[in-house]
Amino acid sequence: MNYFVNEKGYFGDFGGAYIPEMLYPNVEELRTNYLKIIEDEDFQKEFHQLLKDYVGRPSPLYLAKRLSQRYNANIFLKREDLNHTGAHKINNTIGQILLAERLGKKRIIAETGAGQHGVATATVCALRGLECVVYMGEIDIKRQAPNVARMKMLGAKVVPATSGSKTLKDATNEAMRDWINNPIDTHYIIGSVVGPHPYPDMVALFQSIISEETKKQLIEQTGNDQPDYVLACVGGGSNAMGMFYHFINDEQVKLIAVEAAGKGVDSGHSAATTSLGKEGVLHGSRSILMQTEDGQVIEPYSVSAGLDYPGIGPQHAHLFKTLRGEYVSVTDDESLQAGLLLTQLEGIIPAIESAHALAYLEKMKFTGKENVVVCLSGRGDKDMDTYMKYFDL
Amino acid sequence: MNRINKLFQEKKNILSIYYTAGYPNLGDTVAIAEELERSGADLLEIGFPYSDPVADGPIIQASSKTALDGGMTLKLLFEQLKDLRKTVSIPVLLMGYVNPMLQYGVENFCKSCAEVGVDGCIVPDLPMIEYEELYSGAFKENGLTNIFLVTPQTSPERIRKIDGLSNGFIYLLSSSATTGQNLQVSEGTEAYFSRIADLKLNNPTMIGFGISSKETFDKACQYANGAIIGSAFVKNLKADDVAGSVKDFMKTFKS
């Protein structure tokens, strides 16, 4: 079974480039150049240098002893929360900004939900001196004021998306519209493994550093680079794809992707895409998305702005359909409780996104021998408001 | 011969009007078509609304949202168009995004189009290769033409390919832009239009995006077989006087 992209830009039945003609030259330019650029020795050198000196990689793989005791397994946390800017998102923005420079682009656009990808994009634009415009739903701008301020301080222009539901999906639409209107000088840094080919593959390649490091660290710490389980949360799915990437062909490693059930899968307020979705096309690729019978996209809900997306990346859809990955979900309540538990057992406040992955440990049965890696994709600073309200802190 | 080929054989300076099905009121779809034909439109593009119309500017986004909120679906649209051909004789295209069409089922969609007398489709985010490999059969079987878009950035090779797959007309975007902006015929645009003319394509061309007035329409007609008006028309529709607002708008095109 091939779990990776084929020469037509598909992962099994999913992927492709469903884009209006106005975007064709932009996407085609990327498609014909991305592998050449990424595989270039100079690019690799610069990419890895920045990951090391600027992002602070490799991120630690930390054996969480008290959490391990609690769940009766060896639980390792891949500490993406310790990256510069506080999440895995920067791995991708570093890669894409170097790529944009090599394509001669002068202007960068991005979409953001919670603001993590927006901050990571504004950061690399400041670093390289490029103009930066970030689209963000009007509602999210209100919910995530500190990240909006960070982006502005970094020199980015934050443009409110006022169409539709005024959240991540609409910010993505606005970014695509900007790209249509600025086809020559602009590069669109998509923040997840979504969008038209080659984005899902390209973003996965940049995020694959997560599993590449994890394998080396597992050998050092356990003598075996194959854990029993790998867990990650999934909105669009970029941290999960990075965490899964180098384990995908190790068929005995179980891959568990945790979606946001919101107030419950059947509550009408959920973002559990694989449970609620059907095959279709969203934001340029064929995948699984939450939609009405008429093919209109349904607004998702999750307490976590980073998981509040009605689709998943096409490679995830393929892993789901082929049963290579197990796609599950946990609720708002379960993830907030898991966030508190990690904080009190290990002294780490996780992003609510990452807390979704942790919450699923509660539902697993272990014998004490299993090695389990959980991607701690981001830190919880940005979520303090939500935690404070929920736990009455 | 289908209605579209016939139209292009018989007429020059073809005026095509786009509007969103179910806007301003859910039940206006056919009434607008009838009024447009009476008022001198040559070709109609009826948009089936989508929740995430990335190629569209604010006006068509808003009309789509109103239509969807009002309950418009593809299924309902085909019901509304059931008796279209009793009162409307000019060619009609459906325009929309690929996802609603996929959920309806592409073959079913083509059949429904044929049943109600729709002549073809414009689906901006349906990739050429998917159309060619998967769907062109169903389109042909049902006598539908698929209209492709060309932008100033489309390469000559790709335009030739599009010409080969087309049987109707080619939709030239005046600039690489979302809908609803004003046509500025700069030197660059003129060079692009002449470049297209020099290719001596098999299919006629229509210019769209940014055509909002008699003046811009006339300008576009210097370079193509006609032009398409969308946002400007939709913006002008009045919910409480649909027929009147169609008439008034169309009057401005009679010289």
From TrEMBL, chain A:
Keyword set includes Amino-acid biosynthesis: yes
Domain Tryptophan synthase beta chain-like PALP: residue ranges: 56-378
Residues where N6-(pyridoxal phosphate)lysine is found: K89
Enzyme Commission number(s): 4.2.1.20
Record key words, sorted: Amino-acid biosynthesis, Aromatic amino acid biosynthesis, Lyase, Pyridoxal phosphate, Tryptophan biosynthesis
InterPro entries associated with the record: Trp_synth_b_CS, Trp_synth_beta, Trp_synth_beta/beta-like, TrpB-like_PALP, TrpB-like_PALP_sf
Keyword Disulfide bond appears in the UniProt entry: no
Gene3D superfamilies the UniProt entry points to: 3.40.50.1100
GO cellular component: cytoplasm
Required co-factors: pyridoxal 5'-phosphate
One Pfam family, short name: PALP
SUPFAM superfamilies, sorted: Tryptophan synthase beta subunit-like PLP-dependent enzymes
Superkingdom per UniProt: Bacteria
Alphabetized GO MF terms: tryptophan synthase activity
Reactions it catalyzes: (1S,2R)-1-C-(indol-3-yl)glycerol 3-phosphate + L-serine = D-glyceraldehyde 3-phosphate + L-tryptophan + H2O
UniProt pathway: Amino-acid biosynthesis; L-tryptophan biosynthesis; L-tryptophan from chorismate: step 5/5
CDD domains linked: Trp-synth_B
Annotated family: Belongs to the TrpB family.
Oligomeric and partner information: Tetramer of two alpha and two beta chains.
Function: The beta subunit is responsible for the synthesis of L-tryptophan from indole and L-serine.
Protein name: Tryptophan synthase beta chain
Species in which this protein is naturally found: Pedobacter caeni
From TrEMBL, chain B:
Pathway stated in the Swiss-Prot or TrEMBL entry: Amino-acid biosynthesis; L-tryptophan biosynthesis; L-tryptophan from chorismate: step 5/5
UniProt cross-references to InterPro entries, sorted A to Z: Aldolase_TIM (IPR013785), RibuloseP-bd_barrel (IPR011060), Trp_synthase_alpha_AS (IPR018204), Trp_synthase_suA (IPR002028)
Gene Ontology terms: cellular component: cytosol
Active-site residues, as the UniProt record annotates them: E45 (proton acceptor), D56 (proton acceptor)
Keyword annotations of the record: Amino-acid biosynthesis, Aromatic amino acid biosynthesis, Lyase, Tryptophan biosynthesis
Catalysis: reaction(s): (1S,2R)-1-C-(indol-3-yl)glycerol 3-phosphate + L-serine = D-glyceraldehyde 3-phosphate + L-tryptophan + H2O
Record-level Gene Ontology MF annotations: tryptophan synthase activity
UniProt EC number: 4.2.1.20
Enzyme superclass (EC): lyase
PANTHER family: TRYPTOPHAN SYNTHASE ALPHA CHAIN, CHLOROPLASTIC, TRYPTOPHAN SYNTHASE, ALPHA CHAIN
Stored NCBIfam families: trpA
Family membership noted in the UniProt record: Belongs to the TrpA family.
Subunit structure: Tetramer of two alpha and two beta chains.
Function: The alpha subunit is responsible for the aldol cleavage of indoleglycerol phosphate to indole and glyceraldehyde 3-phosphate.
Descriptive protein name: Tryptophan synthase alpha chain
Lineage, top ranks: Bacteria, Pseudomonadati, Bacteroidota, Sphingobacteriia, Sphingobacteriales
